[in-house]
Amino acid sequence: MNTLVWALSAAAALLCVFAAAGYTLEKVAEARDRRRFPAPGRLVDIGGRRLHLASLGSAAGPTVVIEQGAGSPSITWWPVQARIANFARVCTYDRAGYLWSDPAPFGRSIADRVADLHTLLERAQIPPPYILVSHSFGGFLGRAYARAHPEEIAGMVLVDTPHESTVLQRSFLGYLRRGARMQSLVAMAARLGLVRLLGRHVPVLLMPDDPAGYALCARPQHAKLLADDLRSMLADVAMLGALGSLGDRPLIVLTHGIPFPGSAAAAEQGWQEGQRKLAALSRQSELIVAARSNHMIHLDEPEVVVEAIRRVHAAAS
User: Fold this and answer.
1) pLDDT digit string (tens) for 165-209?
2) What is the side-by-side strand order in the sheet with 50-56?
3) Superfamily of domain 42-168+239-316
């Protein structure tokens, strides 16, 4: 018995040593990354906090503003942004806490996120009208922005964004709850440096190939932000159905052609019907299936996304 107690005590002590070492190394890596990877764009003060904004292009017409999905860093949109800059001014930004943007308290609503974007564009002196390009969870932010500031919106591209009828299904709500819990566990692992070690093998955490994006997304903050994005959908689920229509503003809805894998398959139930409902939000709309894409259409078929934005920009201009 004494031998067993000694062995368990030694194992516990060794585990504590490894945890302390991992925590320390993670803190050192985060400090190093802040020096190695300064913000490539502008840090715009929105009232005691700064948001990171990257702007390209100078063509006439509405400015294209890209809103990323939950846990999907803006850096994954930069190759698409560079191509859009050939025919439009285009902006990507990081929501509070992501990549180079200053953090904000957790538990914020969809409306809080929309207010951040509105203030950012205003203080960065990027005048409307805008073409909002919204991916996944970002679709709710884009539509909420259009409801709050309809006079600023010239058109919209929705990239594999769920309709509220999909979110309200019990299976999908369960998927969101499980995803939020999973990311809370991932954040705990990240504090010990395990996400930095395992990287792209971490469930539901998109790790960009870019060294800066990889390093900044390995922080525990990133997984906590993803969990917070998912929880904001759960908290605001009652208001999602009141986001309203787009009238006759040009709208293109892009949807995936390859079904969601694994546990994400819960979203497939009613997905296509929801996409048709999204297309019905405007009297000038089109629904396009990206046949060779899963959820990340801007990575799988970027040319489809660029062409959709080009067409909406031309129609709005």
Assistant:
1) 888 888 888 888 998 998 888 888 888 888 887 766 665 556 677
2) 42-45, 50-56, 90-93, 63-67, 130-135, 153-159, 251-256, 285-290
3) Alpha/Beta hydrolase fold, catalytic domain (3.40.50.1820)
